[in-house]
Structure of GNAT family N-acetyltransferase:
Amino acid sequence: MVQIEQIFPSLTWRIRHETMYPDEPFDIVKLKDDFDGIHFGLYLEHRLTGVVSLFHEGDVYQFRKLAILPSAQKLGLGSQLMDYILDFCKIQKATKLWCNARINAKEFYYKFGFHETDKTFFKDGHDFVVMEKELSS
């Protein structure tokens, strides 16, 4: 059974750490603007298993730190979380949703209609590309 709900920012940190930066200090996963965002948790069998954080300026939204625990990856949970935030953004009348995608995760975002921009960068040992999707208002 999967349930997705809004969660407190600090609940995202453990999942982010275990999934994205397990060999780094815990505080690396805390974003300076975490308490300005909207955070969602995916619960699998009542256990917090995945997280994603949304931030916006006007009607343009960015999602950050989409993470599913390694033990639960490849089960379609990331797709369920993406579908959820896409629906949420449409309800909020967002015009665009974008992210800084790890290069090795680009294919995942293509499935949801995201396209690459020409903006790329290297951070924390990973190559990233900015990907975005226009949303119909």
Q: What stands out?
A: The first helix runs from residue 12 to 20. The chain has a mean pLDDT of 95. The radius of gyration is 14 Å.
